[in-house]
Design brief:
Chain A has a single domain, classed as Winged helix-like DNA-binding domain superfamily/Winged helix DNA-binding domain (Arc Repressor Mutant, subunit A, Orthogonal Bundle), CATH 1.10.10. Helix content of chain A is about 55%, strand content about 20%. Chain A has five helices and three strands; from the N terminus they run H-H-E-H-H-E-E-H. A three-stranded antiparallel sheet of chain A has the order 1-3-2. The longest helix of chain A has 18 residues. The mean pLDDT of chain A is about 85. Chain B has one domain. Chain B is mainly alpha-helical. Classes of the chains: A alpha+beta, B mainly alpha. Chains A and B meet through helix 2, strand 1, helix 3 and helix 5 of A and helix 1, strand 1 and helix 4 of B. Strand 1 of chain A pairs antiparallel with strand 1 of chain B, so a sheet runs across the interface.
Chain lengths: ~100, ~200
């Protein structure tokens, strides 16, 4: 795979979406507030990116209630894990030193 | 895509990974709860024996187990509902805690009652189980200090065999305080410090 031919997944490539997926890859599930605090995104911005990731099948978004307050819990799907790992492989390929004959 | 942008992506991933690293829920309060509960059980047993009511000792232990279980279930359920993030290690420590709880129940109450082994075996078996439990926690929490209480329990599991039978229960107070209650308080302090630093 040459560096020029590497195509990064556009669904993951946006910084906020990459941050969300990176966080969710290390935890089983996380709620909206946790993701907002750790990514530094605004509520509206985060909400938009979560919807994009959910529509792409990379994460699941479950809405529940705790003490009468709405709670949004997100978790990465198997497809999400697979595509994140592929994304990492692409980054590795880009960052790998050029082989000289 | 240039290398600089890829490098930025890697930095972002690294930053997110380090942020999520400190999210393991520590079980310090359960150490404290069960440490004091078992200590109360030991004291009650000796008091009952001293007062000449040894047949109620089992009842005292069942009461300790029952109250401890109810309080633990209450806290774990509340914690689970309030938690903003659940890690795989949270699930592992939760499952391990439950597994060891049933093992303790079998080793300290059920097996002796069924005459699987004599009462004198309770000390070494529970000491070994407590040592193993804390040893695994030390590894999971990546906190070297916890290996010391694990070692104290292993030493107790061996040493208790050389103590007169009537002192076995009291001897267990030592590893309970130094191998369970004090590490529990230290774990709670560590948890509070990590939350403050976050």
């Amino acid at each position: 795979m040459s560096k020029d031919s590497v195509q990064l997944d556009p669904l993951i490539h946006a910084p906020v979406r990459l941050a969300i997926l990176s966080l969710l890859m290390t935890v089983e599930e996380a709620d909206f507030t946790y993701l907002k605090d750790h990514t530094g995104a605004t509520e509206g911005n985060l909400s938009t990116h979560l919807t994009r990731l959910e529509e792409g099948g990379l994460i699941t978004v479950t809405k529940t209630f705790y003490k009468k307050r709405p709670r949004t819990i997100c978790a990465v799907t198997q497809e999400g894990r697979k595509r994140f790992h592929h994304y990492l492989s692409c980054l590795e390929a880009i960052l790998a030193p050029e082989k000289t004959e | 895509m240039n290398s600089h942008k890829a490098y930025e992506d890697v930095q972002l991933i690294k930053e997110m990974l380090s942020k999520s690293k400190t999210n393991i829920r520590k079980g310090g309060k359960y150490f404290i709860l069960w440490g004091y509960a078992v200590l109360a059980g030991i004291m009650t047993s000796h008091l009952l024996a001293y007062l000449g009511h040894p047949r109620f000792i089992w009842l005292a232990w069942f009461a300790v187990m029952f109250v401890g279980t109810v309080v633990t279930l209450f806290f774990t359920t509340a914690e689970k509902n309030q938690s903003r993030v659940v890690t795989l290690l949270d699930r592992i420590t939760g499952a391990m805690g439950m597994g060891f709880f049933f093992s303790f129940l079998l080793a300290s109450l059920v097996f002796p009652l069924l005459d699987v082994y004599p009462l004198t075996a309770i000390g070494p078996v529970t000491g070994m189980l407590a040592g193993t439990f804390i040893f695994i926690l030390a590894w999971i929490y990546q906190w070297k200090f916890l290996f010391i209480p694990a070692l104290i329990w292993f030493i107790f599991a061996v040493g208790v065999n050389f103590i007169p039978d009537e002192l076995t229960g009291l001897a267990m107070s030592f590893p309970l305080i130094f191998g369970y209650i004090i590490p529990g308080h230290l774990l709670v302090n560590k948890e509070h410090k990590e939350k403050r630093d976050e």
